[in-house]
Amino acid sequence: MRKSVFLILVCFSWLIPVFAQDPDPFFTDKAALQEGRQFKLKSAFQEFQDYSNYDLIYQRMEWKIDPAVKYISGKVTSYFKSETEILAEIGFDLDSLITIDSVLYRNQKVQFRRTGDRFFIQFENPVLSGQIDSVSVFYQGEPEKQQTGFGAFGMGIHDGFSVMWTLSEPYGALEWWPCKQSLADKIDSIDVVVTTPEIYRTASNGIVVEDTVEAGYRKMHWKHRHPIATYLVAIAVTNYATYSDWLELEDGRKIEILNYVYPEKLEQAKTETSITADLITLYNHIIGEYPFANEKYGHAQFGWGGGMEHQTMSFMYNFNFELVAHELAHQWFGDYITCGSWQDIWLNEGFATYLSGLAYENLKPEWWYRFRKLNVERIISQPGGSVFVKDTTNESTVFSSRLSYSKGAWLLHMLRWELGDEKFFNGLRSYFNDPAVANGFATTSQFVKHMETAGDTTLTEFFNDWFYGEGYPLYSAGYKNSGDGYYQISLSQTTSHPSVSFFEMPVPVRFYSGGKTDSVDFRLVHTQNDQKFLVKVGFPVDSMAIDPEYWLVSKTAKVTGTPLVENNNGFYVYPNPVQNKFSVVLPIGQQFRSIRIYSSAGQLQKEFLKYEINFDVSELASGVYFLQLETNTEISVQKFVKH
């Protein structure tokens, strides 16, 4: 028997795949470590303040690449709109060691000046407010010449073939192309045209509109007509094998799931990526329709040990279920809606981590409990740390698996527990559909407003405690039988970090009986220490647990119980004190059902399910015990002493 007040998200049992994978206990740690290393190499970049003077509305990138040679040459044409009354010059970011051959403005070569990793183009006739204009930059060089690899322009070997890829998060794009590095301005649309030796294919954002071979060279043209953050523009080049799966929507439209994989991994990839359609279906239901449905979603295999959520085509080291679910989730949170500051990185990584958890809950429910347990254990492994990133120059803080990923995810899970499923998912969908953040950048405060509206409540204290504050509660509880099936609970907490004096939270508790064959859950709204609650359990209790399903970031310090109150109802135990055996005298007319022996702390010690002349308790240690007698009409309790 199991009674519960929990609301459960509807499971898509028909979507459960035929294979299963145990959640990798180190998946989040490895993902965060890889991204943190990437961030460390690039985080010295500071966005130029004058970049707010123009809006980048379109870029066309034309590149020549040989994945066996670390070199790039090309032309980048940028269309921009003036956001100031008089725009006298425009600036871009580009590594100082990469050569700019020329700059064209209105089909004329113009002068430019370089300052460190930036260059500026002055206009003879300033561009007026609202006016659209364009410039083209021709350049070439060795990307990341001053780096030691593991950066924005990666190279490797698979099965004897060269592979090259880009990974620009957070500010690495300038190391391989002239761009506007910004967390405030997305490029409204792009075209990517890459020419390579004939044996190679290029993977990129959007859809392929040209794939031609001429004179030993292949030209592939990708078109993407959605706003995109600079760090999400990407290319990968090798001798890819390609295949597509398709997801048909209810209205008959189809979403292409396009995969560029190493030929030697083709058959394995076909099996492992087949789950992607089910994941998109799930996320469509939970959040809203995949935001780039009119183009595609896809994977491109690359040699970096993790995954990167490049818009419409995630770059993947392998196709582990959790990695596939995580990078796909970023298309909603990270790509379509991008954090406006690395201080709010949880809006990317915490959301993707939690959605991968929802993927377990709905598609692989046998692993959902383990996912919750692993994440909570990771969070409480240290006493402090906030989801809010106080120091964005510290990569281990920005990409902390414990805080930005796991605790960020559990901030969402606790919001779900606080608000209930209906309000929580309504708030999540409202945030996703907000035109103020759609195709743009978001802050935590914008997300909070949607959750407060959906929940018809204020969440100020919740976010002060769980987002800005540090640590978690350590709960202690005591319980005792108050008679007639009622139990009184006394609940207290201490906090692991002084930044939060008390976490006001609804606390889930569960009572067990009969060797945990019976259980019942209660939700205790905990607002002060040593708070008393009276609950009706409905069966004799032998133990109680706090948050057994890992709804909260918390630890249980101790649970003590005196589950029984003496009420012998006319029966008695003899002898008392007891040496090794005892007998009971039943009230007249009553029939024996069971006897249970409890310690003074409330733990079940022994059970007798049939009547005996002498009940043997010789194995019990000396002490005080409670004997609970159940008959056909009532339950009675008597205390006895064991010598």
Task: Please identify, by name, the CATH architecture of the largest domain.
Answer: Orthogonal Bundle
Assign the CATH superfamily of the largest domain. Answer: Neutral Protease Domain 2
CATH domain class name of the largest domain: Mainly Alpha
Number of domains: 3
- CATH fold category name of the largest domain: Neutral Protease, domain 2
Total helical elements:
11
Which percent band covers the strand fraction? 35-45%
Helical content stands at 10-25%
Radius of gyration over C-alpha positions, nearest whole angstrom: 31 Å
Distance from first to last alpha carbon: 37 Å
**Structural class of the helices, strands and pairings?**
alpha+beta
Largest sheet: 8 strands, mixed
Q: What value does the average pLDDT take?
A: 91
Instruction: Write out the strand line-up for the largest beta sheet, numbering strands in chain order.
Output: 6-5-9-3-2-12-15-14
Q: Assembly state here?
A: single chain
Strands, count: 37
Give short descriptive properties of this protein.
single chain; 643 residues; alpha+beta; Neutral Protease, domain 2; Immunoglobulin-like; 8-stranded mixed β-sheet; 5-stranded mixed β-sheet; 11 helices; 37 strands; 37% strand; disordered N terminus
